[in-house]
Amino acid sequence: MPRRSARRPVSADDLYQLRFVSDPQISPDGSQVVYVCAWVDAEDHTRYRSKLMLVPFDGSAAPRALTSGKHRDNAPRWSPDGCSLAFVSDRDQERGQVFVLPLTGGEARQITTLKRGAGAPAWSPNGDRIAFSAKVDIPGIAEQEGQSDDKGKQPRVRVVTRVRSKADGEGLLQSLRKHLFVVNADGGPEKQITDGDWDDAEPAWSPDGDLIAFTSSREKDRDFTILNDLFVVPSNGGKAKRLTRHIGQVGSPVFSPDGGQIAYYGHDKGWQYGARTDLMVIPRQGGEARSLSADLDEELGNVALSDARDPFAPLPARWLPDGSGLLAPVSAFGRVAITRFDTNGGPAQKLTEGDREVAAFSAARDGRRLACTISDPTHPYELYAIDGDTERQLSNENAEWLQTVELSPAEAFEATSTDDQTVRGWLIKPLGFSERKK
Question: pLDDT per residue over 155-196, tens digit each?
């Protein structure tokens, strides 16, 4: 008689036991990886806590905590010299602010004090400044909509004057718009470098530090369309220049190593529902954008749905150091793999394989060593190091929990629709399931 497993089925309360591993960031020299480990607050199940963890890339030591986990610490970013980490934390107030932690010793220092908090930091190439996007109030709209900060009270009557008045993960947008800021890495006043009744986001520095690329929708129809554009603005402030022609979508821009091109996820197919995302490249000064993935019948980026990671977290492509190609995630049939694209038109090459999701990744300066968070239907996200053909697991945040539960694998299947299309799906059978005899 087969031995009964000592493990139990998963229950709803297991959500409070899970550890959510995300945002792997490898150091510029490839020797260390920092990642975020988050969990549901044991005392307040409506909140999360998170901490930053550091582990050697070669796996020679176990991960160690860089922050206490008493707050929400996230979005870690290495300084170009690898000596400091910038990150976002709510440790001093409800709104997250940017902090810088020296890895040679010392306490993290807060470098932003914005009323509405600050977004993920982006270091300038020489490490002297940090760019980020942040929400700001548009006074005229606040007055029109009846908003007031008086004693923290919400208005009794809210006047909504725009179609796009709320968003998933953000709630009511009110009079708030996202704009770009730059602050010195050692602190000081934050300088706002964009403004207007629109959102500017996803800042990316040019290698010379003169420009910051970002995404925005500034057309009059911005509340009625999904289209947006790629812009650049002087990093010291000035007039922003639009590089694309408002005929598609743009996301996660990143400059080439020589600064001559900008890669991004998007397309130029207009307002076409379900248009496939491509890996696009456009000259720094603007012009015709070209797709590096036009021959690939798969979707760029991570489109695998999951409630165990942030679906809005940016996942930019990574240029190879000589500018000959880019690394980017590609989604197909429930799998997400890191793929190398040749800027000269060569065939795409998958660097990871298997029935799993590479949820996020970063690359060392050499373009070879990768830090990834990976999951499959029976394993929550954990951190992995990939160096060519060598792969090793660096974190085991959920190992203890996995010893107590029994999970069912997902079985893939296919069906044919009435219009002769192949429809793919997955079946997860309950524990103890057995086929009924005919």
Answer: 667 777 778 778 777 777 777 899 999 999 998 899 999 999
Report the DSSP beta bridge partners of residue 350. 339
Dist. CA 33–CA 58, nearest whole Å: 10
Burial bucket for residue 207 (CB in 10 Å: 0-12, 13-18, 19+) = middle
Domain ranges of the chain: 12-134+177-413, 139-174
- How far apart, in whole angstroms, are the C-alpha atoms of residue 249 and residue 225? 10
Closest CA to 344 of 282, 292, 267, 278: 292
49-59: burial string, b at 16+ Cβ within 10 Å, e else: bbbbbbbbbee
Check if CATH label 2.60.40.1120 holds for domain 12-134+177-413: no
Per the structure block, which two tokens stand in for 164? 């796009």
* pLDDT score of 154: 63
Task: List, for residues 20-68, the tens digit of each pLDDT value.
Answer: 999 999 999 999 999 999 999 988 888 899 999 999 999 999 999 999 9
User: Are the beta carbons of 213 and 262 closer than 8 angstroms?
Assistant: yes
